[in-house]
């Protein structure tokens, strides 16, 4: 069985559009390029907190992904008191790739799905460019509800990060893509520029996940020139995964 399902014609067209925007204009360059040669700080393992430390007494998070999914949308979730609706994660619970964003977009509530609208269409193109899709990745948000300010509140960021790390540990993906600076801070406790350009190891009870910190699609819409940087991150995300087919 192939690692990823075949793409249809629309997926190929979307991938070509993304490659063009990212500045990919040749199939094979004259000189080889080492995409992983960007100088970065040495990776430091990120260890998921122990269950006893992950939540205050009486609010321990469920230890199965099915139970966690219900808890995440319930009254014990950190942002349960915020206005609006909570948006559930989507995609396979055993996906090889997990994608985390910081919080729902303004239009996501009406659409009933994470990363909709223009940002969602761009995300779809980004995934298609590396042979992925919403149907093959596990997509979730650090904030299940959109904050009133549109930004993840710093005073609850650490708690939301604990919840997100617990979520990652339950899915136990092979790779994790973090989109946005706030997402990187919450999960890796580090700003994205400090950890980008390399595969960061994330340790959890079920093993280790390779993490790539990248740019959120909404930033890429505002600053298209950054798509080339995002493309390098996407290449890093799937590098070597084709070698481990089922």
UniProtKB/TrEMBL annotation:
Keywords noted in UniProt: 4Fe-4S, DNA damage, DNA repair, Hydrolase, Iron, Iron-sulfur, Metal-binding
Limits of the Uracil-DNA glycosylase-like domain: 88-235
Keyword DNA repair: yes
Pfam families associated with the record: UDG
Transmembrane segments: none
Gene Ontology molecular function terms on file: 4 iron, 4 sulfur cluster binding; deaminated base DNA N-glycosylase activity; metal ion binding
Record GO biological process: DNA repair
Domain of life assignment: Bacteria
SMART domains in the cross-refs: UDG (SM00986), UreE_C (SM00987)
Organism: Sphingomonas metalli
Protein name: Uracil-DNA glycosylase
